[in-house]
Design goal:
10 helices; 241 residues; alpha/beta; seven-stranded mixed sheet; 7 strands; globular; Rossmann fold
Length: 241
Amino acid sequence: MSSFDDSPWGDPKFSSEYLERADLYVVERRRLFSIVQEHVRFFFPEKEGFSFLDLGCGDGIASEKVLQVKPRSRAVLVDGSADMLERARERLGERDGVVFVVKSFENLLNEGIPGGPFDLALSSLAIHHLDDRGKEGLFRTVFDSLLPGGWFLNVDLVRGESPLLEEWQMEMWRLWVEERKAALGVEEDIFGEILRRYKGTEENRPGTLSFQLEALKRVGFAHVDSFYRYGPFVVFGGRKE
């Protein structure tokens, strides 16, 4: 498992460029977050004192979506980048009960998760930076941080179950980006750059969906399933009974 400080995400310029184009890079980004919101509405309709954890929170957009549903939540936002956490503070503004913590996944695996227990743990486009062993270790750490009845939701990239399916998923991604480019009047080769970064950098280590669902079950999660998928982008998770 590589160090966060050695990855491009430790570079404020890199992370800023990604955020500026996230809606172009990430397939169905708004729908992915809407699924998180609907999940919270369905499974916690009357929950008072709702609490959640946002792992690898970036600029806080996932937390913002949860807070739109549960505005009086207690929340812990964790990211390895102080710059990203500052962006999250700017996005969310001053809120009682919202805490920002600078910790990498390596820190969390070694030290545990602060501020729990939680009703919900979520992560968005971050856990694929861990290798399979690290993913399962983080799932276990998350499980331990949840209240009984608490859910874990992961919005992330996964690898195809076979080379043929991987090729198909990349094509679905490319077609979506080309559609978005046409709608926005963008002419540059966006997907070529996306693919270069995705395939050519060591910190991107997406696992298969099947491995991660089984890992959640091994850790102890119930009701494990994939809730949405478009190409390599998925929403999946499970509940602690």
